[in-house]
Amino acid sequence: MTDTPTQLFIGGAWVDAADGATMAVDDPATGEILCHVADAGPKDAQRAEDAAVAAQEKWARTAPRARSEILRRAYEIIVERTDELAHLMTAEMGKPLAEARGEVAYAAEFFRWFSEEAVRIDGGHGTLPDGRNRMLLSRRPVGPCLLITPWNFPLAMGTRKIGPAIAAGCTMVLKPAPQTPLSSLALAAILKEAGLPDGVLNVVTTSRAGEVCEPLLRGGRIRKLSFTGSTGVGRLLLAQSADAVVRTSMELGGNAPFIVFEDADLDKAVDGAMVAKMRNMGEACTAANRFFVHTSVVEEFGRRLAERMGALIVGPGTRDGVDVGPLIDRNGRGKVEELVADAVERGARVLVGGRTPEGPGSFYPPTVLTGVDSGSRLMDTEIFGPVAAILTFDDEDEVVRRANDTPWGLVGYVFTEGLDRALRVSERLEVGMVGLNTGLVSNPAAPFGGVKQSGLGREGGRVGIDEFLEYQYLAVPVG
Ligand code: NAP
User: Fold this and answer.
1) What is the SS3 assignment for 80?
2) Model-level pTM greater than 0.90?
3) Ligand 1: which residues within 6 Å by Cβ?
4) Which residues, 6 or more positions from 237, have their beta carbon under 8 angstroms from its beta carbon?
5) Ordered domains of the chain (ranges, CATH)
6) What is the per-residue pLDDT for 429?
7) 29 CA distance to ligand 1 centroid (A)?
8) Do the Cβ atoms of 235 and 241 come closer than 8 Å?
9) Would you name the residues annotated as active-site residues?
């Protein structure tokens, strides 16, 4: 912690907020203050934007190989410092160290992937239908970007945006979540060490997100917004982006259905449920929110899931053997408590968990609810906690209809041993991603993203860099 930067990173320099403001970063396991970081205001954001705008033209002309090698070096430094970064992440966010190490590896992979993509940006040449005119197509960086990230994956949500932006030749202002600024500041230091030129990445930590971001979005110099966070905030930022017609990518909330058919392999289904529900203590956009289990297997599935969930060890993420850390803060926990209370009031049975422990921190136990009424609030709210809510169904058409009956469409999970059914149901689900007999879909080589109110655009995969590139078409008449 002692070496972790706590100032703003602007134009390649570490600086205090112009008005000297700072904000506290808390440890969710104890509720105590870990440290203070600079709390940027609109003036600081303006300076960060100035630095990004000033660096853009030269950076766009940098050789793709040079951009690629910066990313590759940063990837290697991140991997070398896995332990240090994992401890930092656990301190500010709470997830157990093993999960934090997993996130460091996942985050680093975005840099490796996009270091490989930086040198594969293609163009095109063609003869137009009249046979005379030629078309030359080139791809260029979209320009200075504003990147806004959430607290739940503090490192990976940053690298998933910064990686393709660097590869494409864009400059950036990054605004991380106020709960978890340290991982982003550590990442900026690593990129500087890897040779990223001054001004290409600027990081503003702030507790005044609206005041800091809105002028940038409306000002006309930022050309791209890449946002990961809740659908409500995404909607607001889309409206703010409309004034200056800023290009946007939106990775928003989810309400994932997890469907277990009568012909599912229950070992696979329970393993998949543990990952889809418990990765990141349930604080993931991909978290299974609604478990639809066929009536004929619901009892067995519920019993086995409750047994596995009940065996998990809850405690501070730094303690050996802990599986489940604290939730991000008491507000987050309060929301989970309310959702469980509402479901129980409407008739749900608690198979395991459901009771908030005494003591410091924001811990909540792994919980399984069965017999959940479809009118319960947790059916149309992201739970964002370690609570599995089980409902039953009897036939395929019915479960597809209920799974799709939500404004979100990020991911769905399907468990069946029938290939026909697996493909048919996957195709009918209104989601951007499907986990077929698996509870994990995230992979830097795959396009991540949702449909409906879960977002616009994709991050990662071959298409991830497209979000940061524009086509330019050159018309050339040939006599
Ligand atoms: P959030 O409240 O929407 O905040 C996300 C980020 O937006 C934070 O940095 C936040 O800063 C900032 N923000 C909020 N209001 C803003 C404004 N008016 N102008 C500019 N920035 C603003 O979400 P969260 O609670 O941090 O994260 C959880 C949500 O993220 C869930 O809905 C989850 O599903 C979603 N998520 C989606 C994905 C995906 O890939 N689809 C991945 C991870 C998480 P402040 O906190 O200071 O307001």
Assistant:
1) helix
2) yes
3) 148-153, 157, 175, 177-178, 209-210, 213, 228-230, 233, 236-237, 251-254, 285, 382, 410, 455
4) 148, 213, 217, 225, 227, 248, 250
5) 8-252+454-475 (3.40.605.10), 256-443 (3.40.309.10)
6) 98
7) 21
8) no
9) 251, 285
